[in-house]
Design a protein that fits this description.
The chain is mainly alpha-helical. Helix content is 72%, strand content 4%. It has 32 helices and 5 strands.
Length: 657
């Protein structure tokens, strides 16, 4: 039992609450039989109640304090989290800003000119380094504008192009964001940096400019030559950084193309792969502008080999080949250039220039193939783009095409509106390279049947071109074949034969004129031989087939003639001559009913051709359509007709009147 009580005692000592509960139970049991004990128990209960209340109050305070502590701890944790997030955000923004600076530095392509170091007296006059650097920058930007006037190349493709991102850099002291950006651009970017200094020399002043850390170029003069020195420095810097544009600046300034050729060759030798095709193109164009079309053709072939997907080489190759008399390759190249332009997805050319180039390609192709009304529309479309100076070659090309489309009065009206446009002025190599060879005055006289006037006019053009000394290729392949034919038409057959014999045999027009002259000399077999060679040389062109068909029709081989006219029409569906002559052959075969469709179709491509409406009226008269015939005769009356054609019109109208 003692052990049991000892255990109970240990448990009570270990748990005060249990002790108090046991004491309370014993007191209550004792109070049940003793008043004194009951009073003491009541006192004890009161004290216990008070103690419990005090403990409860303490617990409430502790609980309040604990909740406040937890709230403070929570707020503290939230603040710590917010601070951490804020710090991370700041770091992230700093990293993003640095990344942006790095990206901008890597993509930097602009031009930065450092202030030019100047003598103190210049600064006192307001010509400090910043002012001189700004003058130099303005001059360079103006040169870029002048060079781009002659080129359709997109600025984005020019190595070293700075576009509108050019500035004079103002130095800053201390460490700043601007200094960091400048450092990154220098280390990571592709900006073109320029600097220089102006110093006193024995005879005045000397201005030195350099690109990057290069050796620099120095230009000396007197104090009053400062603007001139800045101009020379700007030229030197542009030549060093953008040689392609610099070549066109020289051309814009009036330097003879022949003088530009050696510099173009020098630039190509040092060019990057990206710039080489463009410099090659500029080189070949200057060669063409100098009248060296054979050399230009060789260079154009090299340009095509360097960049077969770039239209530039093909655009330049076509007029070279035309000037040399190679008409089939000329048409093939210009058609391919147009296809490349229409299907391009990159930006090799300025957007506004592409419609001009496409219209120019179409005009070339239409001229070569004899679709003259289409060529007139293309010439007008070129002029409307406003992308090139066409004060001479534009009206000249339109007048030339109108004359070849049997509208000599329309052609003469164009020339009357532009008194500076003549065959001699149109034979300048630059115009041939841009719009093709044109002889509107000669073709107007030929359409009139005035072969004496045509021969004299063309002889003068030939003499002028020869005296200028830059026209040997085109003279041999274009002027002299037509001149030889004109000589034959006025009866100078020996002179015509001697002249045509001197022209190259790989020239399409030269072979055709050999055939015409042989026919005029009564050598039909010779004519057939040369017409056949011409067709083999230029299988897509209609002219030899037309000449051959005319010869057969004059010999009354109407079926043979119709076959040649059909062949010509297949080669060039928009050539009016093939359709009109086909109609005339059908009238001669007493098939005027079939001729009507040919005349109607020809009218779409030569609406102002007097002879066409005369023959159309004849076909209508033969088919009994009196009113329609009179309508066509009335149209013919208002258009140009030769004397013989007007006599035929008077006879037809008299018979039908």
């Amino acid at each position: 039992m003692a052990d049991v009580f000892e255990d109970d005692a240990e448990e009570r000592d270990a748990d005060p609450a249990a002790t108090r509960a046991t004491a309370l139970a014993l007191a209550l049991n004792a109070a049940a039989g003793d008043d004194r004990v009951a009073r003491q128990a009541e006192i004890f209960l009161g004290e216990q109640t008070r103690l419990v209340r005090l403990q409860a109050a303490d617990l409430e305070k502790e609980d309040t304090l604990r909740h406040w502590s937890l709230r403070v701890r929570h707020v503290n944790d939230v603040l710590k989290l917010a601070f951490g997030v804020s710090a991370a955000f700041v770091v992230l923004m700093a990293v993003a800003a640095l990344a942006l600076l790095v990206w901008q530095a890597v993509e930097a392509r602009g031009l930065v000119i450092q202030p030019i170091r100047t003598p103190p007296e210049f600064s006192q006059r307001g010509l400090d380094g910043t002012v001189l650097a700004q003058r130099l920058l303005d001059k360079m930007n103006s040169l870029v504008v002048r060079g781009d006037k002659w080129s359709f190349r997109s600025a984005d493709t020019v190595s070293g192009n700075w576009g509108e991102d050019s500035k004079v850099e103002i130095p800053e002291t201390g460490v700043s964001l601007a200094e960091l950006s400048r450092f990154l651009r220098q280390e990571l970017g592709h900006e073109t940096g320029m600097s220089g200094e102006l110093v006193r020399s024995d005879n005045g002043i000397a201005l030195t400019v350099r690109v990057g850390s290069g050796p620099g170029s120095t230009f000396a003069g007197r104090d009053t030559d400062l603007d001139k020195l800045i101009d020379q420095a700007a030229h030197a810097l542009l030549a060093d950084t953008q040689p392609y544009r610099y070549l066109w600046v020289l051309y814009d300034e009036g330097h003879p193309p022949a003088s530009i050729l050696p510099l173009a060759r020098h630039f190509i030798d040092a060019a990057t792969d990206r710039e080489r095709p463009w410099l090659q193109s500029a080189w070949e164009e200057q060669a063409a502008f100098a009248g060296a079309f054979r050399a230009s053709a060789d260079l154009s072939a090299k340009t095509i080999a360097l960049a077969p997907d770039n239209p530039s080489g093909f655009i330049d190759y076509a007029p070279d080949e035309w000037a040399l008399g190679h008409l089939e390759p000329a048409k093939t190249n210009i058609d391919h250039a147009r296809q490349l332009l229409e299907n391009r997805s990159d930006r090799d050319f300025v957007t506004a220039g592409v419609p001009f180039l496409i219209a120019n390609c179409r005009s070339f192709s239409d001229d070569i193939s004899g679709a003259y009304s289409d060529a007139v529309a293309d010439d007008i479309a070129e002029a409307r783009t406003g992308q090139f100076d066409f004060n001479i070659s534009g009206p000249g090309a339109i007048a030339n095409d109108l004359a070849l489309d049997h509208d000599p009065e329309g052609a003469a009206a164009i020339l009357a509106q532009h008194p500076g446009v003549h065959d001699t002025t149109l034979m300048v190599p630059e115009y041939i390279a841009t719009t093709g060879p044109a002889l509107p005055e000669f073709f107007i006289e030929a359409e009139h049947g005035d072969w004496t006037g045509a021969e004299q006019s063309l002889a003068q053009t030939d003499r002028t071109a020869e005296a200028r000394g830059d026209f040997s290729d085109v003279a041999q392949s274009f002027i002299r074949p037509w001149l030889a034919y004109a000589e034959a038409r006025v009866g100078h057959l020996r002179d015509a034969q001697a002249l045509i014999a001197k022209t190259p045999v790989d020239c399409t027009l030269c072979m055709e004129m050999r055939g015409r002259i042989a026919e005029l000399a009564g050598n039909e077999a010779g004519a057939v031989f040369w017409y056949g060679r011409t067709l083999a040389d230029a299988p897509s062109l209609p002219f030899a087939a037309l000449d051959w068909g005319r010869m057969l029709m004059r010999g009354n081989d109407l079926d043979g003639a119709i076959e040649k006219f059909r062949s010509a029409n297949t080669r060039s569906p928009h050539n009016a001559d093939a359709l009109e002559l086909w109609g005339e052959a059908l009238i001669a075969k007493n098939r005027s009913d079939l001729a009507l469709a040919k005349f109607s179709e020809a009218n779409q491509y030569a609406p102002n051709w007097g002879r066409l409406h005369l023959k159309w009226g004849e076909a209508l008269r033969y088919t009994g359509q009196k009113d329609e015939a009179n309508r066509q005769f009335a149209i013919a009356q208002g258009l140009f007709l030769t004397g013989a054609e007007r006599a035929a019109l008077a006879r037809d109208r008299g018979m039908h009147g």
